[in-house]
Write a structure and sequence with these properties.
about 700 residues; alpha/beta; Rossmann fold; 4 domains; 7-stranded mixed β-sheet; 26 helices; 21 strands; binds cytidine-5'-diphosphate; binds magnesium ion; helicase; DNA/RNA_helicase_DEAH_CS
Length: about 700
């Protein structure tokens, strides 16, 4: 690895780090920032007084880069070199270089605000502008003041505007490591294609047939596209005349791939074989695949976007930014001159693409982050004034405060409650940590732990889709339970309980089309969460015994109540006159229960008046995903709280609000009140009765 650009700058880097508490290192992707920087500092003795931490925004990168470095250092993973991601800690006493997700480092700072175990903290991939890395940037600024004599902070990035970060850290030095990229010829398509999957297919085969050797990297937007394109490529490659061109190896690359599939892209290809790597934007900067000469850039990326006014998420395929397009093209010139085919006209690139990607902090729900900041107990902590590299919108901070207030994590003055502190200790979103704590009170913790663990291991939620059809699952396979029609959380619980009854039998998972790896992960997560709960509640719970108990009707009911309290900000009321639900507390349009839900209407054909939902997501229409029926008497206290809501007070602002803000707070309040009238008024009751009558009639 002696030839990586970063290694040639070793002296300069070490010298600068020695003289400065904070250093920004900018270097092309693949220049060795993630793998070599910590090794250099390790060689130079920086791991003697503490551990060298390297954060990664992506779990996959933390795992794969640490494995690579362990290999280079000739040690086993988990010993001198290890990694820690949520629910998976592969470090030990011996660990000197620790890769961890930025989220894990944030959590660690909650328990140890000075992060004393670390002598060096490298915030890697800062250009990704992940929410957690952005928060860490703000925290490092404080930390450096406390620990200026024994902490080094490095911020590394492929493309970041170094000047901006440098100014943020009182003009710290910026080291630029020149990459040695070969020229990349950029070819734009003249007309935007109808389908970028088809266009990529055509281009890839074209390259394969006509161009000299070299791997092809294709940027798609997500797992669906990737699977589709991989299938098509396989088909097409097979139909090529034998011997007409070299062999082909087609490899998908995305975050939900099992680890053994992910590492395949790093092993060298067999001789006389061209690799097609079909990837998400993970290969843009966080993972470098050697041997790529051709890049096909769809010009799109799938982005999760949160709208604080409506409480809705959307998973949208959006245009990439100019910075991203340049990164993608750069991947073609690592080993020799390459070519990048852009599946969009150059006018689109120039006129439509944003210069840089919108940072995650400006498109995420901030409830977890705000709870975290509040629980740090920093002096002068007015959340609305935290020192961010780029500030989130006031609207989204207010949304977060509102949610935290509704789940009792903050009191009406915006101070964190003792409940809120306990919630912050759980590595979960606030709604789920609140559910666990309530469940503990209601004596159904064991059940709630199961549900929360199932929800936290997303990959297992749905039975693996069958190959033949991509259709949404409307009915559960016959042998899986149906949640008594009360909702998806109950079903998740029942599935796990059935598995438990088989003594965690792996064949049972396979028979029921559940991912084995995922289910084992759920079991592991559940164990970890129950340990944390033991700690938080000072051992006052007996999870082990309750684990042996089958959920009785009372426990299901208590569980639903706990969910109702945890999801207080994710509550929807059925609109009797319209076909749909209205999410309470938001300016939302009507939403529907997702077709995959097991929620059922009652014997009168009516869906429940109130449900809580895990997520509101806009796909073709706005849907609630993972819903659970709740009862009016549990809902009433939440409605009352909504009425009292004053966002300005919640933010911790102590001075008199200026008029404008006050006005905003008041209008929000009025709208909330208007939104929370329960459907129990006379007119709608009559209407409801009529609907029920008609529904009954329709059944006969
Ligand atoms: O972080 P940066 O993009 O600057 O580069 P890096 O991730 O440190 O990668 C440096 C070199 O190590 C590249 O040539 C990668 O191909 C290689 N590498 C690898 O072979 N396997 C990994 N899991 C990670 C890096
Ligand atoms: Mg890197």
């Amino acid at each position: 690895m002696g030839d990586l650009p970063i290694v040639r700058f070793e002296e300069k880097i070490v010298e600068t780090v020695k003289e400065n508490p904070v250093v920004v290192v900018i270097g092309e992707t693949g220049s060795g920032k993630s793998t070599q920087l910590p090794r250099i500092l390790y060689r130079r003795g920086y791991a003697k007084s503490g551990i060298i931490a390297v954060t990664q925004p992506r779990r996959v990168a933390a795992v794969s880069v640490s494995r690579r470095v362990a290999q280079e250092q000739n040690v086993r993973i988990g010993e001198e070199v290890g990694y820690a991601i949520r629910f998976e800690d592969r470090t030990s006493e011996k660990t000197r270089i620790k890769y961890l997700t930025d989220g894990v480092l944030l959590r660690e700072s909650l328990f140890n605000p000075e992060l004393n175990q670390y002598s060096v903290i490298i915030l890697d991939e800062a250009h990704e502008r992940s929410l957690n890395t952005d928060i860490l940037l703000g925290l490092m600024k404080r930390l450096i003041k406390w620990r200026h004599s024994n902490l080094k902070v490095l911020i590394t990035s492929a493309t970041l505007d170094g000047g901006k970060v440098s100014r943020f850290f009182s003009d710290c030095p910026v080291l630029t490591v020149p990459g040695e990229l070969f020229p990349v010829e950029i070819v734009h398509i003249s007309e935007p294609p109808k389908s970028y999957v088809e266009a990529s297919l055509k281009k890839a085969i074209d390259i394969h047939v006509r161009e000299p050797e070299g791997d092809i990297l294709i940027f798609m937007t997500g797992q669906d596209d990737i699977e589709k394109l991989v299938l098509k490529l396989e088909e097409r490659v097979q139909s090529l005349e034998e011997g007409s061109c070299m062999d082909a190896l087609i490899l998908p690359l995305h975050g939900s791939l099992p680890p053994e599939m992910q590492v395949r892209v790093f092993s060298p290809p067999p001789p006389n074989c061209r690799r097609f790597i079909v990837s998400t934007n993970i290969a843009e900067t966080s993972l470098t695949v050697d041997g790529v000469v051709y890049v096909i850039d769809s010009g799109y990326v799938k982005q999760r976007q949160y709208n604080p006014s409506t409480g809705m998420y959307s998973l949208e395929v959006v245009q990439i930014s100019k910075v991203q397009a340049k990164q993608r093209a750069g991947r073609a010139g690592r080993t020799r001159p390459g070519k990048c085919y852009r599946l969009y006209p150059s006018t689109v690139y120039h006129d439509d693409f944003l210069d840089a990607t919108v940072p995650e902090i400006q498109r995420s729900s901030l409830a977890g982050t705000v709870l975290y900041l509040k629980s740090l107990d920093l002096a002068d902590m007015d959340i609305l004034k935290f020192d961010f590299l780029d500030s989130p919108s006031v609207k989204s901070l207010e949304d977060a405060l509102k949610q935290l207030y509704l789940v009792d994590a903050l009191d009406e003055n915006g101070s964190i409650t003792s409940l809120g502190r306990k919630m912050a200790e759980l590595p979960l979103e606030p709604s789920l940590s609140r559910t666990l704590l309530e469940a503990n009170e209601l004596d159904c913790l064991s059940q709630a732990l199961t549900v929360v663990s199932m929800l936290s291991s997303e990959t297992t939620l749905l039975p693996a889709p069958s190959k033949s059809s991509e259709k949404k699952r409307r009915h559960t396979p016959l042998n899986l339970p149906d949640g008594f029609g009360l909702g998806d959380h109950i079903q998740l619980l029942q599935i796990y309980e059935q598995w438990y009854q088989t003594d965690y039998n792996i064949d049972w998972c396979k028979e029921n089309n559940l991912q084995v790896r995922g289910m084992l992960f759920v079991r592991d997560v559940r164990k970890q969460l129950s340990q944390i709960m033991q700690k938080i509640t000072e051992g006052s719970l007996d999870v082990q015994t309750s684990n042996r108990r089958r959920g009785g009707q009372q426990e299901y009911k208590n569980l639903r109540k706990a969910l109702c309290i945890g999801y207080a900000n994710q509550l929807a009321e059925r609109m009797i006159r319209h076909n749909g639900y209205r999410p309470l507390g938001f300016k939302s349009e009507l939403v529907q229960v997702h077709p995959s839900s097991v929620l059922k209407s009652d014997e009168d054909g009516m869906l429940p008046n109130y449900v809580v939902y895990h997520e509101l997501i806009v796909t073709s229409r706005p849907f609630m995903r993972n819903v659970c029926a709740v009862e009016m008497r549990w809902v009433a206290p939440i409605l009352a709280k909504l009425e009292k809501l004053n966002v300005f007070k919640l933010s911790g602002g102590s001075s008199q609000p200026d008029n404008q803000i006050q006005e905003v707070a008041l209008t929000v309040e009025k709208k909330e009140i208007a939104a929370v009238q329960p459907p129990e008024d006379r007119a709608s009751m009559i209407q409801a009765a009529r609907e029920r009558f008609l529904a009954r009639k329709g059944q006969k």
